[in-house]
Amino acid sequence: MSAGPRVLVIDDELQIRRFLRISLEAGGYEVHEVANGLDGLGRAAQLRPDLIILDLGLPDISGLEVLRRLREWTTTPTIILSVRDADRDKVAALDAGADDYLTKPFSLEELMARLRVAQRHARPGPQSSTHQMGSIEVDLSRRQVTRDGEPLKLTPTEYALLRLLIQHAGRVLTHKQILREVWGPDYVEETHYLRVYFAQLRQKLEDDPSRPRLILTEPGVGYRLAVAPEGD
């Protein structure tokens, strides 16, 4: 018999994890569990779960930070389970990319119903946290970039630009789109930023920065990341 949908539970309360495992397995789910945020990020990248149940109050990094990092590379439906019931906490989690929010203590029947709804709304297709571009490998779950296996040091802005290109690989991003996403809406006219930072990125990523094959310029429009290095 094939296993049911995979659920990853990220919660530091042992009793909650045990309760969820017993209850969800009885409902036909395949359950995996971790007790902190960093392990949760690693497990999510390895397991590729169908659903994630996430606590906000984790011992290492906050559940909100876990959620933000997940949303850098995956749209896996994520339901927050938390003792925090203030509207500001719910709004912050939903703004960060949560699909739903339940407060503890919770009704098992309601949780199961919300899991079913989240499954119905899930975007289809596999999502990988690792992207290979010739000799360059980017692991979005770990925020690591390597070239021929050796770590590359990118500034936060350079990494944000690269991540944005990867998220829209093969598509042209306009100057204003990039500036809005990376610097914010007040910077959409500052196109000189892009010339500087894309030149820096090419110096680090391209074999020949003067003849780029990964990060391509669409004259007068913007930039795009080649799905396969140009010329291959």
TrEMBL record:
PROSITE patterns: OMPR_PHOB (PS51755), RESPONSE_REGULATORY (PS50110). GO terms for molecular function: cis-regulatory region sequence-specific DNA binding; identical protein binding; phosphorelay response regulator activity. Member of the two-component regulatory system KdpD/KdpE involved in the regulation of the kdp operon. Upon phosphorylation by KdpD, functions as a transcription regulator by direct binding to promoter regions of target genes to positively regulate their expression. Residues 128-227 form the OmpR/PhoB-type domain. This is Transcriptional regulatory protein KdpE. The lineage of its organism: Bacteria, Bacillati, Chloroflexota, Ardenticatenia, Candidatus Promineifilales. It comes from Candidatus Promineifilum breve. It is found in: Cytoplasm. One of its GO terms (cellular component) is protein-DNA complex. The keyword Oxidoreductase does not apply. Residues 6-119 form the Response regulatory domain.
